[in-house]
Amino acid sequence: MANANISSIELEVKQGEPARVQPEEETEKGPYFLSNLDQNIAVPVRTVYSFKSASRGNEDAAQVIKNALSKILVPYYPMAGTLTISSEGKLMVDNTGEGAVFVEAEANCNIEDIGDLTKPDPDALGKLVYNIPSARNILEMPLMTVQVTKFKCGGFTLGLCMNHCMKDGLCAMEFVNVWSEIARGLDLKIPPFLDRTIIKARNPPKIEFQHNEFAEIEDVSNTKKLYEEEKMLYRSFLFDPKKLELLKKKATENGVLKKCSTFEVLSAFVWRARTAALRMQPDQQTKLLFAVDGRSKFVPPIPKGYFGNAIVLTNSVCKAGELLKNPLSFSVALIRGAIELVTDSYMRSAIDYFEVTRARPSLTATLLITTWTRLSFHTTDFGWGEPLCSGPVTLPEKEVILFLSHGQERKSINVLLGLPASAMEIFEALVMQI
């Protein structure tokens, strides 16, 4: 797909009246428990998929997607509820059966004109996802909005906004793929496992680890000023197999490590490059946060089809000076240590830590890496074939960097990030040096 920036053509989208899509059958009503792993990531996640088929126009796209949504909201009925606060001050779902918000829209151009969806562009891509204009906070937002936008050429986009507190990436992907299978007339293979109490806090809570992910770091480098004074730029950098191989070679050349994974080496490189780009002081503590999938690490393992967040944030903290003066193998080892930290007892300790403190992970002097490389966006087929491309509308916070797999073989990785203009220039130069 052309790499033209979406804004090279002024995208105009005319949205129809929003309607509610309710579950096709009567579903369970009442309160629905959200675990402590769901509480900390109650942010809307907006994604766009683009479709175009040589053999099928877009006339019935909205109807097909809408009918299938009404069907999938039966087994996944909490998605048709509303977010509320429980008596103990936590987020929970009230299963009202109100349903998801659905909007049909029309664009003024061809789908090819919108360019590369793998680069976040909040202004333009935002027009392809419906936002409730009056919502002041997440409690006033539906758990799910759906917008089907038809283009002049017969293609269409599916714009989704779903609250992260309802599901992590793997679960969201499962949900969208099942929804697309239902649209093609297939049956539900694995019913969702809805009971989130299997990972509820212990009584009494038992905090056995330090949990630096919540630690507040002092911004001695005053990077806050940089973000306030300069324009934010969003870029995506492609790391192809050759580039990834070069990084691995660099990380193992001093013999400290025999080998390392793509995630370890790419995270290490990005953490160092961003630290350098933001010109952090040598004595600035910097924190790396990333999510580890806990499904197989819990004892017993999380059941197949688990509906909810089963990811746990792990962390590594290091002074900026140490990070930059040491070889790449040093940062890779820090990341490996953070991955190894995640065991059943660590995850349960994190769940209990939240129970006691209600702390939110602090993002000062922090980099939060989200990896979508294991998510099968490319298999979503509502009956118009696989998406031409798909991607996020924007990054949820300025500290977040996203890894997306790229290309037919999914062997390349696109790194998406936003930085103040001067920092982006330095980051770009460091990528070029590989």
UniProtKB/TrEMBL annotation:
Superkingdom, natural source: Eukaryota
Single GO MF annotation: acyltransferase activity, transferring groups other than amino-acyl groups
Sections of the chain in a coiled coil: none
The keyword Ligase is assigned to this record: no
Pfam families attached to this UniProt entry: Transferase
Family: Belongs to the plant acyltransferase family.
Protein name as it appears in the record: Omega-hydroxypalmitate O-feruloyl transferase-like
